[in-house]
Amino acid sequence: VLINSGSRHEAKYLSGISHFLEKLAFSSTAQFGSKDEILLTLEKHGGICDCQASRDTIMYAVSADAKGLDTVVNLLADVALQPRLSDEEIEMTRTAIRFELEDLNMRPDPEPLLTEMIHAAAYRDNTVGLNRFCPVENTDKIDRDVLHSYLRNYYTPDRMVLAGVGIEHERLVECAKKHLLGAEPAWGSGQSKDVDRSVAQYTGGIVKVEKDMSDVSLGPTPIPELTHIMIGLESCSFLEEDFIPFAVLNMMMGGGGSFSAGGPGKGMFTRLYLNVLNRHHWMYNATSYHHSYEDTGLLCIHASADPKQVREMVEIITREFILMAGAIGEVELERAKTQLKSMLMMNLESRPVIFEDVGRQVLATNTRKLPHELCALIGQVKSSDIKRVVTKMLHKKPAVAALGDLTDLPTYEHIQAALSSKDGRLPRMYRLFR
């Protein structure tokens, strides 16, 4: 079951509700007395369960033997619509969330933190810029009443999709009619009054966190102290036609860590490997990411290096952004397109990925584009398309996230000036001597 609900819808509520719901999933319900009962029921059909909340979707998923379809749909309907949310379960969730937040700040991998920061910078205080993790100060404030008032608005039939893979459509429809149609949720079935339909407002901006990164290593060999920078620009939503050229561009930039060594099969031909990691041995990471939602998108590059080289690292990344709008070799473009197609096909070998693909597409567009249709669209991308989308993107204000020792970080205005220039260089700093 996928539901159009997530941290982006929490503007009128306490931030962190989706994080709570994710942790509370598959606990006791009207039919099942405890989490153990749910797990035992699933075990009879060799099943496993999982719940994931993202910025715009929450997903309750079960993988089990097809013979247990009726039981599984009944269980999913109960978990999504009839959770008990007992005081004891909510208290345990509070503890789990506090622990997770502590862990998040101590991890050597800063990726989740940086992703939060770049979204907060790009969409300040609105929709996808709202925090995906529950802020510490809200852990005590969220209780059953708060959750119910949120669920009443967002867990409604028009915002839900039941998706299945490895099952006949008719059987799934029968089960949906039996267990979900007209089901009375635990919070009552009144009309949803307060649904937030606001559209993402891209603001651009900078979020900085000064943090001592000198002791993040786990074990005897110390990880060198690094400063992490992420620079992003607004791309487009996954409903727009430009989404495909952006996906090809993201593939063309590629990149990774400087220690993910390997031959050409590892994507060593992508620009961030060739132009950045191959030439600047002191850079530890340069990776391109593309986040896309139904009303906006964000293309960003994450780079990390020693704190003393932050200024140079920022300039290398801003130059890569400017070069995106330049000439694109035919071979380079074809390679990126082939790589994107093969990644798409390889991912769709696994059933959980197909399930998520079907569910998310239907939730957003009421239809599903089949893999061969997507491959045909990828095949049609020309270098002129990429140049067009990049030129449009470079007119936006940048979003910047910076984590670590930021003594040498250029100002936001300088980064913005570099992205508006012809060569991506930062303005020179003149020191005045007496």
TrEMBL record:
Pfam family, one: Peptidase_M16_C
InterPro entries with a match to the protein in the record: Metalloenz_LuxS/M16, MPP/UQCRC_Complex, Pept_M16_N, Pept_M16_Zn_BS, Peptidase_M16_C
Positions of the Peptidase M16 C-terminal domain: 141-340
Tagged with keyword Membrane: yes
UniProt keyword terms in alphabetical order: Membrane, Mitochondrion, Mitochondrion inner membrane, Transit peptide
Subcellular location: Mitochondrion inner membrane; Mitochondrion matrix
Superkingdom per UniProt: Eukaryota
Main location: mitochondrion
Family note: Belongs to the peptidase M16 family.
Role: Substrate recognition and binding subunit of the essential mitochondrial processing protease (MPP), which cleaves the mitochondrial sequence off newly imported precursors proteins.
Record's protein name: Mitochondrial-processing peptidase subunit alpha
Organism, scientific name: Psophia crepitans
Gene: Pmpca
